[in-house]
Amino acid sequence: MASFDNAWEEIFQNQEWGRYPSEEVIRFIARNFYKKNRAQIKLLDIGCGTGAVTWYMAREGFAVYAFDGSETAAHKARQRMQEEGLYAHICVSDAASLPYSDDFFDGLVDSAAISGNTAENIKKILQECFRVLKTGGKLFSTGLFKVGMSGYGTGEKLEENTYREITEGNLAHRGTIHFFEEQEIRALWSQAGFQNIAIDSADRTEQGGQNRISYFMVEAQK
């Protein structure tokens, strides 16, 4: 697959993963879709991993679709849905070539999946996100890691602000990671066709201040 980093297949095979979505994902879904007819709202979990966001959206009664490039991750996500009596359309796919029709979704959620790519693949992924969204639909991205956070500049440099096999911090040994600046985000999302681009950010430390975690959150509309 064009954009999927196979390092994630090994990660999902050998590590347990979070079971719950981030607070910012919950806020995005609640603010935009809670008051609508949930069964009629089609939502896509981009790079779903083992299904934390998928599980949450399905539990809240939405029509949920999800994909990941990892066979293992998709299997674990399906297994969780089955165990909890929920349903989502889960498949194995690449984010740069989505298997969905044009103008299909009301909302898309990217929880740290877009960051795991080169700049060129990020452009392709954003174009695909724009294609599959309905007019007026929204894309929410979180985990767009900032230039300068722990791990930035370590490992193999692939291009400006893109590194592979980072050696420090929470992103160590997580395959390819692209780090963003706010101006770049605004340019990339605009070039893909998005409007009403709202950018927020979060900064915190972990492990007694050893690791600095910094990332952008972006809400944009077709």
TrEMBL record:
UniProt keyword list: Methyltransferase, Transferase
Organism: Caproiciproducens faecalis
Signal peptide location: none
Residue ranges occupied by any Methyltransferase domain in the UniProt entry: 44-137
InterPro entries, alphabetized: Methyltransf_25, SAM-dependent_MTases_sf
Claim: Methyltransferase is one of the keywords in the record: yes
Domain of life: Bacteria
Name of protein: Class I SAM-dependent methyltransferase
Swiss-Prot/TrEMBL GO biological process terms: methylation
Single GO term (MF): methyltransferase activity
Record-linked Pfam families: Methyltransf_25
